[in-house]
Design a protein that fits this description.
This protein has a domain of 42 residues. By secondary structure, the chain is mainly alpha-helical. It is built from four helices and no strands. The N and C termini lie far apart (56 Å).
Length: 87
C-alpha cells in the first residue's frame, strides 16, 4: 500500500532525525513504527459472540455506563425563544 502524507516541516524534520538515529530510511522508519502500532490491540468494544448470548449486551451496557452521565435538557430549554433571550 502506498500512502502520501502532508506533514508539517517540524514533524518531517523530527521523523528524519529519528530515522537517521535508528540507521533507517524515512520509509523504513515509518513502516516499522506503523507495524508496531498495528500490532498493539487498542481498547475497544467487546466483540459480539456468535451465539447471541446476553453476555455481550451486559458488557456493552457496562461500557456505556462508564461514561459520564449528563442531564437531559427539558423541553423548555429547547424552545427557540430560550436560546436567545435578548431577542
Amino acid at each position: 500500500m502506498t500512502i502520501t502524507l502532508d506533514l508539517k516541516p517540524e514533524i518531517e524534520a523530527r521523523l528524519k532525525a529519528r530515522a537517521e538515529a535508528a540507521g533507517l530510511s524515512r520509509a523504513q522508519f515509518v513502516t516499522r513504527e506503523l507495524e508496531a502500532i498495528a500490532s498493539t490491540a487498542p481498547a475497544q468494544l467487546p466483540e459480539a459472540p456468535a451465539d447471541g448470548s446476553e453476555q455481550w449486551d451486559n458488557e456493552l451496557d457496562e461500557w456505556l455506563d462508564s461514561f459520564a452521565q449528563h442531564p437531559v435538557l427539558s423541553d423548555e430549554a429547547l424552545r427557540r425563544e430560550n436560546w436567545y433571550p435578548d431577542r
